[in-house]
Amino acid sequence: MTQAGTTEPDELALAAEFAAPARADWQELVAGVLRKSGRLPEDFDGAPESLLTTRTYDGIDIRPLYTAEDETVPAGFPGLAPFVRGGKPEGAVGTGWDVRVLHANADPVAANKAILADLENGASSLWLRVGGDSLPPSSLADALNEVYLDLAPVVLEPGAEYEAAASALLRLLAERNIPDSEVIGTIGADPITVRARTGTAHDLTPAAELAARLAAKHPKLRTIVVDGLPYHEAGGSDAQELGAAVAAGVAYLRALTAAGLSVDDAAAQLEFRFAATADQFLTIAKLRAARRLWSRVTEVSGATPHGMRQHAVTSTAMLTQRDPWVNMLRTTVACFAAGVGGADAVTVLPFDAAIGQPEAFSRRIARNTQAILIEESRLAGVIDPAGGSWYVENLTDALANAAWREFTEVERHGGIEAALESGFLRDRLAQTWEKRAKRLATRKDPITGVSEFPHLAEKPVVREPLPSIVEGGGLPKRRYAQPFEQLRDRSDAHLAEHGERPTIFLATLGPLASHTARAMFASNLFQAGGIEPVNPGAVDDPVEAFKASGATVACLCGSDKSYGEQANEVAAGLRAAGAKAVLLAGRPDESYRGISGFAHTGCDALAVLTSTLETLGVK
Question: Domains of the chain, with CATH numbers?
Fold first, then answer.
């Protein structure tokens, strides 16, 4: 309430009494902080924020600050070309996105039980792997028993058996008296992905002819899936995933139009599948950029403006087998990003999906992750909530341009099929994986619960094995945590054989305050390789403590001052006491004698851990 005689301002201006800060003011503050931390050299004459800039695997610089000065191309409006802000004018407001659940159980009875539980508790569509070692097409009726197929769309992943799967599904729909004009779902024919995963060529013509036949009778049914997951799972970057997927989409457009469909009808047959990762902003930008890319493709193909149907799946590459409970956090962030990015359908993989067949509990958590984001967080209540963010708009634009370069490079090599056949795409993805593997090994790309903050006492989670979808010979399928997890497997085998884990003695130098930080660092590092640290704390004689520990490898932990005063003497004493190797927690320094290796921030943690396990005699 206002006092008598006062007037309210027309506009509330918070902090109006302060002068508007300029970018130079912020830069000066940044420089001050960097100078105090030692990160700003005295002779540095560049912009201080450049020292805080990071670079993605696509060479996109992520700056620490974006402002209104960072203009980019207009994003348009939801439901209108270039569809950056969404494929539908209304977005997902009112309905939420399609909550799609994956089922890959070869047993139709078990699959049916899990399917019904999902549909009764929030799922809105089904994604079924059929054929091969998965559910036989002939068992679709049993797996879908009591499922209302006119309400719950079915998306198949049939591999090379798409014709048999299509026949089985359409036969079942006819038996349920669902009119052809009302049939919804996706057959999932994708011979390009079959080729990418197996290395075996598959002609696109039969899939295109199947789509042409079905389109005439089933206007709401899609036949083709364009899957970006194989390129993501091979270690590729976001732009490489987008570029390969767009190239595959173009290949299908050519095949479908050759089979007699118009460009508009051909585009309507496609559904795109992309990975959603824990890198929230890159996932948001990737989905927005994908729609922009496809809008341009359909435009130059002569089609009417056509949005991209998107299915986002939480990344299998980011999932861990160790400390799998952390996967719940990763998939929550990925699902959030997929929803904000405007995906039409989202699949949250259960936290144990990297281990084997998910159980009822993990499926429930995966479903409820989406339910909370849609119903409680109201994430779908606003169309394109990231739209207008200076950072997101610039990242979307940069990623779209990088992906277009990847797409045109694939086209320059003859298209997606030729690029797979020649090995060009495999080599290109391998180059990115080499960079990613280095960052993973040095923990610049940390994996919580595995390479960072491991839980060494955890009991491994065991699940029934999943049916294989890879026949071999195609693109590799990678998980980021696997190299570290293999070291943990070696440690577990050692524990089973000898009754104890391999150990390393932390030889702490100086008073408690001088060695605590480096001892904690070393403890965290060695546990990532399954090596149990023995930390005696502050001791008068670290050599005698080492002898009493029974360990055969030691790591010096202390301050630079204590290293200068004691490192050489203690290292010599440890060697004389039988230490097979003596490491030092700190940067390499030639003045230290008798040191086998150095463990420090940014070191090749995988190399240090592997070498230590070998020294300890762990097979």
Answer: 98-412 (3.20.20.240), 485-615 (3.40.50.280)
